[in-house]
């Protein structure tokens, strides 16, 4: 970091998670990897990144106890790691419109748009989304 009149800038750190999604290319030996370009106005502007973002209050495991799928996550007893996994899933849907579910859901374009808009209002709407499709 540069200095400001001899004073060091403070670096603020926060927990965050990214998700790396890849698939085998059809009829080829290679793989496709999902990466996104950040907006010109965001932090790390114009960088090419994996989808992801900062841990949010809603990613706290206490909010998710009623969901059976969360209890099946191998790291369930590690609250911080499981919360970061939820962060990566939520952020991937927010940024890319890809919702990782098992069994796989097929959302229409209008459903994806509606839920992404709700998540822009509040990340807590991710719990509402999961309850709706439970």
UniProtKB/TrEMBL annotation:
InterPro entries: NUDIX_hydrolase-like_dom_sf, NUDT19. Keywords: Hydrolase, Magnesium, Manganese, Metal-binding. Its cofactor is Mg(2+); Mn(2+). It comes from the Eukaryota. This is Uncharacterized protein. GO terms for molecular function: hydrolase activity, acting on acid anhydrides, in phosphorus-containing anhydrides; metal ion binding. GO terms for cellular component: mitochondrion.
